[in-house]
């Protein structure tokens, strides 16, 4: 059948040996291989499609098969089909062959080695080839040689790498096996790849040695050669073979076969004779092989691996990093070299610790730990010489040996596995706590692990698979090896003991002695290493001691230096002597005169060889070379001596100067401290300084350079003509950085000083000085007369000179002059109050004072800002003041002085002062406030006899009176009292002002006598009526009231009636004798029968019963045959006794009240309880120190009294003494009693700055600090002046709360006090603290008062040219306080043009100078005699400015001091000058007044702005209404029915008694309360006490019947943070059901929470509550299975599972709550109740804020009313008028100021902005 007829074929892979087989033996036993074809016959007549395998070699199987067989390939499958698209009747098999791509081999090296943690893996690729060489040479009897050759000579061909060994070599079969990828030694014994040698036998392991059988996986060699290059040539000769075998594998050959579709994994092995290189003769790229093949002669066996096509980056690495990769290669193969890490570890170790670890897979690991000790100044732990050392910030002190490197390197079969390290084991890890071994010792050991081949490694032998995981398995057993013997010991303990022994035996540390203190170093760049540093005075190091002050020399520093030890430094918190591994030393470089520097170096850099003598000699030699002194000579023989005095004009000089060192040698340069450096040249600077009155002036200044001929030379100086003291300065200077320095290395260079004085010459002429024309009273003036020498200096008169004072100068045309002066009142000197002491004023009235301001002569004087204030007046919340700026006098009208409840005379000191004039002494006046004679109290009393001097009864205000219904209350009187308590005489006019509400017509005559109309009592019983008496007049209204309660008549009245009830007249007076009265217990002896004629009735009085029990009695009246029965209720008698029925006999209370009520009972004298309610119960204390406020309230029908809220006073009764109760006062931890203020007392309070932090603590009665207080209740008060001496601020002194914590502007003493608002009426005051406000930093120069504008005329009269005669300028802060008292300097005065002027022709000062200097001492400069020169330049009529610029050291361009500017006017015309002078003076006065007005109005505007921002509309009644509603709702909730503990608790409230357990806690849920109460049923009535003493007392009082629990004997470990048992490490060990929770967490403690936690923590422990029994059992099961003990479990259904697992039965089932009979925990108040309480508190705070806001609103309204007052309107009009005048004058002067220019005052708002910028 042809192929078109349906024949299809498919290829089968050669590796499928099931279908294809080859055999060398054919059918006939020949060597010709058989060719077989698998045939599936799928024709329709065939249904089984059987598979047939036919050998088609020579087999005649139909003709077409013979034809087809010619085209069949080995292993093809032949399908016989009818047609090509025939459906297969059954499934068939088609054999295929699948082989990996050659990239699997070629790229394997890159994949393996490039995944090696970013390191260069080339050495490890070499190691793989070395492993093969080691295996090949393992059986060598002689020398084992392995060569690595790098053939990089391009003249010999391509770059190549050759690895050659003299091992056993490989046969062609072994070479073929080597070429097969992943053919390991363990799989070579089977199949096609079986070796032609004996089978593999695992060699015995050799501990810690390189195993010769490390060629393991069958992949390493192939991966290595293709990682190194692109091609490899294997050349090998096996032992005993004459042939050499060669195999070439290359990437290029693989690619060629793929292109030609040839079999990739096929090739040939070339077998040749020794030294046959015929095959490479034509290959120029492999010329290097000639020499290699030539070496084959004489070798019995060898193998050479030739790698070509080496990667360029590998070539670079192999060339440049030869030492690095060879070192890493030898480390992998464990070769002996000097600088590999293991060799370094072994050579530097002092002791070893050997151990062994065995895993559960026959894995064995032998380990060694080596200890590298610390030797005095260095760690011996070796550093990797090829590692990149990055300086660790901690290395400055810690110098840890190993650092963060892992401990163990790992070896497998002796081969280093470089990429696997083991950081540590648990038993050798860093300790978590400080132990007996220092922590740094744990970084001083290294380690190595040797494993057998039971542990898996990667095929490239770079990484262990799971070594660390297996070693840290719990099943791994560690043992110690001692002397080769294995010991089963506790490895952790053995290691710790070994490490401790190593530390004690081998470590040599530095001993630091003489601890001084701990410091913070700012010279350390790393912030975290700046602190802490301990400082020491000495150390012991290697047998030598070093101490502070000792000379040392450095070593290994750049440069080497000498110095003295300052101190030794050690990082960390240390105290006392301590050993450490090193530290640092601070050294002051010597000689200090040359260096003046401090260096800090490690202690290890101290030279320990040099002696102290050698160091000192070196220092002295350096010092002797330095400049020491100046030698000054006078070449012309005219020397000036020290303090010499010479007349003006005397020449000085010439001078010759030399610089000498200590050896006396003349030098001109600074000796160099360093070699080969340029020495700095020295020069001499000459300065002559004139110490003028205005400051030092430099008159001469010269610098002389050195000359080899005459050294330093200065010429003669002839300009010394100024009078005063001079100083000649000769300074050695050094030109450094273009500046002449006189200091070198911190020491002054040699200098010479000559002090001398220049005096005036003989007098030659004289001048009359200027007399000021504007004089003030009390200010003296002079007429100066000056004698001058030829230089114009004031000269002394000659002895025979006698001056004459005359007003006529004869011989002159104008021989006389007229001097006009204006005499004005002087400056304010005193304050006068015309009213003298004593001043008497009635309470409630006002008083006025006439005040005047006088000068020193007693004249009334006016002055700007002359405001007189009065302080210290009660009833006045602000200061009272009057403005006397214009007149100097005024009247102060004070507000009415009001004292509340004044009883006697009160003395008040009124202080009058002038705030702007601190020099004027305040004046005080004593005001004697006497009680007013006006009516202040009205009293009503009852007096039966008008002549009686004793009142029978006084009615208190609002008193209730029991009176008989229908009766008449008579004999009522009234009295009026004034404030002193005196009776005010009555008059008819006053009587007309008396009003009563029970009578319309009242007799004025009786009222004038003090009588009130009688009060008719209504007839209706049990009805109350209100009665009031009032008195009203202007400003006075007093009243008193009382209430009458009606009661029935106590006496029976008998009348005779007929049968219809009509009254008859048959009774007569004789009928009384036949009247009889009878009743049980009636005392008949006291009966009295009285006939009443007016009513024809009989009155029975004296009805009295004998002592007995109260109750119902039948009173029988009998007369003849008539009888009448009256049933009466017999009650208790008159109260005579008061007894304590219930309540503690001895109680411990807090000062705020007694919690337990006292139940009191009134008894009559026979012991019957009395229901009388007309009583009041009062409490008296045994000591006046204890004050008790109390209230009583009557409750119950039998008169049980308890402490309540209502006062009930008895009406005309005698007192009854009651029982006594012992009180023990317990401090209340929540009651504030004291304020403790802490602040930095060393703080400085600069004016206008920010106050320091004041820490205020509120201390309770028990001395603890109260923390839950509202900060809004704390206020800080500040006032100027001394403390008041009392607990509160002084009366009459204005004080306020500082805003933004700003310190006041003005200097002086201020007092600060804090107050805590406890409630609306009570405050807690702190002590008063005085702070001294000092001036702030100086910012400007200025005068105390602005001087007038000078006006000068350019003529020859000195007076006309005077700018300033005498003016004091001071350094001031921004608030005009004198500042800089410690500063000195100078003030430079210059002249500049005014603003807007371009005039450059400026006037000059006297002496034709542009500037003058005045000395500034202690922050003040005195400017005197400042004139312009005669014929000075300047433009007529111009305004110039005197600029006074301060020059103070420390203040420069960055922080300049503002200069003071004083404008002046310059004229050439005298008349114009006079006119302008007058205008200028008027302008100054107007400007000063306008500034005062502006300041006043600006202050008012700021005050209005601040008050308006704090005002808000509030509705306080609405807030009160809401508070009342919320309070009512809270009370309703409080009265709602809820579960309570019904057990009596009589012990609660006593000293150190908390109460019964049932009363200590509350439980919200009823089911929870039931089960917990039942669980604690045996303890719920136990009394808990704080002390054993209190518990013992209760025990004794109850004869041991009451169980008690003192807390001072209870041990309790706080475990509230411990989680539930099912939670471990923050995660649930199982999922619980039933909402488990600790039972103790469901308790609510209203009081003593901390103590209650102790109580219930001991009683309940870890008892858990769940929902039901099933969830409880589920929970217990889960906990127990987690191997955790389970506590007792309770359920909300009342079940209990004990801690031992037992449940069920009556003893484990809680009864219903009713059966607990009240022994159950109570329920808390509803949550809404606490919400209401919180809302009420917030509303009360809001109400208080609104109250303050309302007060602010009142102040705002008052201030606005004051601003609109006629006085302020008038002041505003005056200001406008004066501003207009000022503008006119400025227009005339031609200097119109800019509108709105600042007056120079700093407002508070501006100050706040400045403060915000500063802070």
Automatic annotation (TrEMBL):
One of its GO terms (molecular function) is ATP binding. Residues 1804-1815 have a biased composition (Basic residues). Pfam families: HATPase_c_3 (PF13589), Ig_SMCHD1_1st (PF26194), Ig_SMCHD1_2nd (PF26195), Ig_SMCHD1_4th (PF26196), Ig_SMCHD1_5th (PF26197), Ig_SMCHD1_6th (PF26198), Ig_SMCHD1_7th (PF26201), Ig_SMCHD1_8th (PF26199). Keywords: Chromosome. GO terms for cellular component: chromosome. It is found in: Chromosome. Residues 1551-1676 form the SMC hinge domain. Residues 1-32, 1787-1815 are annotated as: Disordered. This is Structural maintenance of chromosomes flexible hinge domain containing 1. It comes from Oncorhynchus kisutch (Coho salmon).
């Amino acid at each position: 059948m042809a192929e078109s007829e349906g024949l299809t074929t498919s290829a089968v892979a050669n590796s499928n040996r099931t279908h294809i087989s080859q055999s060398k033996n054919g059918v006939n036993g020949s060597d010709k291989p058989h060719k077989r074809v698998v045939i599936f016959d799928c024709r329709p007549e065939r249904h089984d499609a059987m598979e047939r395998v036919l050998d088609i070699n020579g087999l005649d199987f139909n003709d077409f098969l013979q034809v087809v067989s010619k085209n069949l390939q080995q292993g093809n499958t032949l399908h016989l089909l009818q047609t090509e698209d025939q459906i297969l009747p059954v499934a068939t098999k088609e054999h295929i062959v699948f082989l990996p791509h050659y990239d699997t081999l070629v790229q394997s090296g890159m994949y393996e080695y490039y995944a090696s943690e970013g390191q260069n893996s080339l050495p490890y690729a070499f190691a793989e080839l070395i492993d093969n060489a080691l295996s090949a040479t393992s059986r060598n009897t002689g020398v084992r040689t392995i060569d690595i050759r790098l053939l990089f000579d391009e003249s010999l061909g391509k770059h190549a790498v050759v690895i050659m060994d003299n091992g056993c070599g490989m046969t062609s079969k072994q070479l073929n096996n080597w070429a097969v990828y992943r053919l390991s030694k363990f799989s070579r014994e089977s199949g096609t790849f079986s070796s032609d040698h004996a089978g593999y036998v695992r060699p015995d392991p050799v501990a810690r040695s390189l195993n010769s059988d490390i060629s393991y996986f069958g992949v390493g060699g192939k991966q290595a050669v293709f990682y190194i290059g692109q091609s490899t040539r294997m050349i090998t000769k096996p032992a005993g073979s004459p042939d050499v075998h060669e195999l070439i594998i290359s990437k290029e050959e693989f690619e060629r076969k793929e292109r030609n579709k040839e079999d990739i994994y096929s090739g040939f092995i070339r077998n040749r004779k020794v030294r046959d290189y015929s095959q490479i003769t034509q290959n120029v790229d492999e010329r290097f092989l000639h020499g290699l093949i030539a070496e084959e002669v004489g070798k019995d066996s060898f193998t050479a691996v030739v790698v070509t096509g080496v990667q360029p980056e590998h070539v670079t690495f192999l060339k440049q990093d030869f030492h690095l990769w060879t070192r890493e290669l030898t480390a992998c193969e464990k070769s002996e070299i000097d600088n590999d890490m293991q060799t370094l570890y072994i050579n530097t170790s002092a002791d070893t610790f050997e151990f062994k670890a065995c895993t559960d897979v026959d894995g064995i690991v032998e380990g060694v730990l080596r200890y590298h000790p610390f030797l005095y100044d260095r760690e011996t732990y070796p550093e990797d010489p090829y590692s990149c050392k990055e300086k660790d910030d901690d290395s400055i002190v810690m110098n840890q040996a190993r650092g963060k490197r892992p401990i163990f390197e790992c070896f497998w079969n002796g081969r280093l596995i470089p990429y696997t390290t083991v950081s540590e084991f648990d038993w050798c890890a860093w300790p978590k706590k400080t132990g007996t071994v220092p922590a740094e010792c744990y970084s001083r050991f290294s380690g190595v692990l040797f494993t057998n081949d039971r542990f898996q490694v990667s095929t490239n032998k770079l990484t262990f698979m799971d070594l660390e995981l297996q070693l840290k398995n719990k099943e791994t057993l560690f043992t110690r090896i001692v002397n080769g013997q294995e010991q089963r010991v506790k490895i952790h303990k053995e290691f710790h003991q070994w490490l401790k022994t190593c530390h004690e035996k081998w470590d040599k540390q530095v001993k630091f002695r003489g601890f001084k203190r701990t410091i913070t170093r700012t010279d350390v760049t790393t912030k975290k290493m700046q602190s802490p540093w301990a400082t020491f005075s000495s150390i012991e190091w290697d047998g030598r001691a070093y101490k502070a002050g000792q000379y040392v020399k450095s070593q290994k520093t750049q440069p080497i230096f000498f110095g003295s030890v300052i101190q030794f430094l050690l990082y960390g918190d240390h105290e006392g002597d301590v050993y450490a591994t090193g530290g640092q030393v601070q050294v002051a470089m010597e000689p200090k005169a040359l260096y003046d520097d401090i260096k800090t170096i490690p202690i290890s850099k101290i030279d320990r060889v040099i002696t102290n003598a050698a160091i000192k000699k070196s220092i002295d030699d350096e010092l002797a070379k330095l400049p020491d002194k100046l030698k000054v000579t006078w070449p012309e023989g005219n020397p000036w001596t020290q303090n010499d005095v010479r007349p003006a004009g005397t020449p000085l000089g010439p001078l010759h100067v030399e610089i000498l060192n200590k050896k006396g040698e003349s030098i001109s340069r600074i000796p160099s401290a360093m070699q080969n450096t340029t020495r700095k040249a020295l020069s001499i600077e000459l300065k002559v300084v004139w110490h003028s009155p205005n400051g030092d002036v430099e008159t001469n200044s010269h610098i002389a350079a050195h000359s080899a001929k005459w050294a330093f030379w200065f010429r003669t100086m002839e300009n010394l003509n100024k009078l005063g003291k001079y100083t000649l300065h000769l300074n050695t200077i050094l030109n450094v950085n273009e500046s002449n320095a006189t200091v070198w290395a911190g020491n002054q260079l040699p200098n010479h000083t000559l002090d001398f004085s220049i005096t005036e010459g003989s007098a030659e002429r004289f001048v009359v000085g200027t007399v000021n024309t504007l004089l003030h009273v009390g200010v003296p003036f002079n007429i100066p007369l000056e004698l001058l020498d030829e230089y114009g200096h004031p000269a002394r008169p000659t002895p025979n000179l006698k001056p004459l004072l005359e007003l006529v100068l004869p011989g002159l045309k104008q021989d006389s002059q007229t001097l006009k002066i204006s005499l004005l009142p002087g400056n304010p000197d005193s304050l006068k109050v015309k009213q003298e002491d004593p001043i008497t004023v009635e309470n409630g009235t006002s008083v006025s004072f006439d005040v005047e301001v006088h000068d020193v002569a007693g004249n009334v004087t006016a002055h700007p800002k002359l405001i007189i204030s009065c302080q210290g007046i009660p009833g006045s919340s602000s200061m009272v003041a009057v403005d006397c700026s214009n007149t100097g006098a005024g009247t102060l009208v004070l507000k009415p002085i009001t004292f509340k409840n004044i009883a006697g005379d009160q003395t008040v000191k009124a202080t009058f002062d002038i705030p702007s004039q601190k020099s004027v002494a305040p004046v005080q006046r004593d005001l004697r406030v006497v009680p007013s004679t006006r009516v202040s109290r009205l009293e009503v009393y009852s007096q039966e006899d008008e002549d009686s001097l004793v009142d029978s009864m006084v009615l208190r205000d609002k008193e209730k009176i029991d009176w008989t219904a229908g009766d008449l209350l008579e004999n009522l009187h009234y009295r009026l009292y004034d404030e002193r308590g005196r009776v005010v005489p009555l008059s008819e006019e006053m009587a007309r002002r008396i009003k009563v509400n029970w009578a319309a017509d009242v007799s004025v005559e009786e009222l004038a006598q003090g009588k009130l109309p009688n009060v008719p009592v209504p007839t209706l019983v049990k009805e109350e009526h209100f009665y009031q008496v009032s008195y009203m007049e202007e400003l006075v209204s007093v009243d008193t009231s009382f209430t009458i309660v009606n009661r029935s008549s106590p006496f029976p009245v008998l009348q005779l009636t007929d049968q219809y009830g009509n009254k008859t007249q048959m009774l007569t007076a004789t009928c009384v004798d036949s009247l009889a009265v009878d009743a049980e217990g009636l005392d008949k002896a006291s009966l009295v029968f009285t006939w009443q004629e007016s009513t024809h009735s009989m009155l029975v009085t004296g009805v009295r019963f004998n002592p007995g029990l109260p109750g119902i009695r039948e009173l029988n009246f009998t007369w003849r045959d008539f009888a009448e029965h009256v049933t009466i209720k017999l009650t208790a008698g008159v109260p005579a006794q008061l007894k304590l029925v219930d309540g503690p006999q001895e109680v411990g209370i807090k000062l705020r009240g007694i919690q337990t009520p006292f139940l009191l009972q009134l008894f009559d004298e026979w012991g019957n309880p009395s229901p009388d309610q007309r009583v009041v119960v009062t409490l008296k204390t045994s000591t006046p120190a204890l004050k008790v406020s109390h209230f009583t309230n009557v409750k119950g029908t039998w008169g049980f009294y308890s402490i309540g809220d209502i006062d009930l006073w008895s009406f005309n009764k005698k007192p009854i003494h009651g029982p006594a109760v012992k009180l023990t006062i317990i401090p209340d931890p929540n009651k504030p009693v004291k304020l403790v203020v802490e602040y930095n007392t060393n703080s400085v309070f600069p004016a206008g700055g920010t106050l320091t932090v004041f820490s205020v603590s509120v201390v309770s009665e028990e001395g603890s600090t109260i923390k839950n207080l509202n900060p809004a209740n704390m206020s800080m008060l500040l006032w100027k002046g001394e403390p008041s001496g009392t607990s509160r601020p002084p009366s009459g002194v204005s004080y306020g709360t500082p805003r933004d914590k700003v310190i006041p502007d003005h200097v002086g003493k201020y007092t600060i006090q804090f107050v805590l608002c406890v409630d609306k009426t009570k405050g807690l005051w702190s002590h008063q603290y005085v702070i001294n406000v000092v001036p702030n930093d100086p910012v400007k120069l200025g005068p105390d008062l602005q001087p007038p504008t000078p006006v000068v005329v350019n003529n020859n009269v000195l007076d006309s040219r005077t700018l300033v005669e005498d003016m004091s300028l001071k350094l001031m802060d921004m608030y005009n306080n004198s500042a800089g008292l410690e500063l000195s300097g100078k003030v430079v005065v210059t002249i500049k043009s005014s603003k807007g002027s371009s005039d450059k022709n400026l006037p000059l000062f006297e002496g034709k100078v542009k500037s003058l200097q005045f000395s500034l001492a202690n922050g003040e400069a005195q400017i005197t005699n400042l004139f312009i020169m005669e014929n000075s330049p300047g433009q007529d009529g111009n305004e110039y400015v005197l600029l006074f610029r301060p020059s103070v050291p420390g203040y420069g361009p960055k922080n300049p001091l503002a200069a003071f500017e004083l404008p002046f006017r310059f004229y050439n015309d005298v008349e114009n000058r006079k006119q302008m002078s007058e205008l200028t003076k008027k302008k100054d006065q107007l400007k000063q007044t306008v500034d005062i007005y502006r300041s006043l109005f600006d202050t008012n505007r700021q005050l209005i702005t601040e008050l308006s921002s704090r005002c808000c509309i509030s509705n306080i009644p609405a807030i009160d209404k809401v508070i009342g509603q919320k309070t009512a709702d809270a009370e309703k909730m409080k009265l709602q029915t809820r579960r309570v503990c019904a057990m009596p608790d009589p012990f609660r409230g006593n000293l150190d008694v908390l109460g019964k357990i049932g009363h200590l806690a509350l439980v919200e849920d009823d089911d929870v309360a039931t089960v917990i109460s039942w669980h604690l049923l045996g303890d719920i009535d136990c009394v808990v006490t704080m002390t054993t003493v209190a518990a013992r007392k209760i025990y004794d009082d109850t004869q041991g019947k009451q169980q008690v629990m003192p807390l001072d004997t209870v041990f309790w470990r706080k475990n509230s943070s411990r989680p539930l048992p099912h939670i471990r490490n923050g995660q649930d060990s199982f999922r619980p059901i039933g909402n488990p929770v600790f039972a103790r967490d469901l308790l609510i403690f209203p009081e003593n929470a901390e103590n209650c936690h102790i109580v219930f923590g001991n009683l309940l422990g870890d008892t858990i509550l769940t929902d039901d029994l099933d969830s409880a059992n589920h929970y217990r099961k889960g906990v127990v299975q987690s191997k955790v003990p389970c506590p007792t479990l309770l359920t909300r259904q009342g079940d209990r599972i004990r801690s031992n697992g037992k449940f069920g039965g009556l003893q484990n089932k809680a009864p219903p709550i009713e059966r607990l009979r009240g022994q159950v925990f109570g329920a808390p108040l509803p949550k809404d109740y606490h919400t209401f309480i919180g809302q009420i508190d917030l509303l009360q705070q809001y109400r208080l804020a609104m109250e303050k806001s309302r007060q602010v609103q009142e102040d705002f309204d008052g201030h606005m009313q004051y601003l609109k007052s006629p006085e302020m309107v008038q002041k505003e009009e005056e200001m406008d008028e004066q501003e207009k005048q000022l503008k006119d004058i400025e227009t005339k002067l031609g200097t119109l100021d800019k509108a709105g220019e600042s007056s120079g005052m700093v407002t508070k708002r501006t100050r706040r902005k400045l403060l915000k910028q500063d802070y």
